[in-house]
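The instructor's notes for this session suggest beginning with a concrete chain rather than abstract definitions. Hand out the sequence below and ask the class to guess, before any prediction is shown, which regions might be ordered.
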Amino acid sequence: MRQSNPSDVPADNSTSPNANFLGKVFRTTGPITPPAHPEEGWRLVRTFLTIRSPDRRKAVLKYVADMARTDEAERTH
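After discussion, reveal the predicted structure:
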C-alpha cells in the first residue's frame, strides 16, 4: 500500500471560510466537535478496500454504522 501524498489528503484548515461547515449546514444544540482528521478517513477507506470477503465488508459497514449511532446517542444525552 503506498503512502499518501500530503496533497492527496484534504487540508484540515480550521481558519478556512468553511471551518464551521457542520454548524452552518446542520442545526445543532451544542458545540460541534471537530470531525475526524481526513487522514483517518483515508486510512479507513484504503483498509476497507483490501477486504476481499463481501460478508466481512458488510460486517465492517454494520460495525461502523453502529459505532456512529452509539457516538451520536452519547453526544445527545
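Then share the key points. Residues 54-76 form the longest helix (23 residues). The two ends are 40 Å apart (CA to CA).
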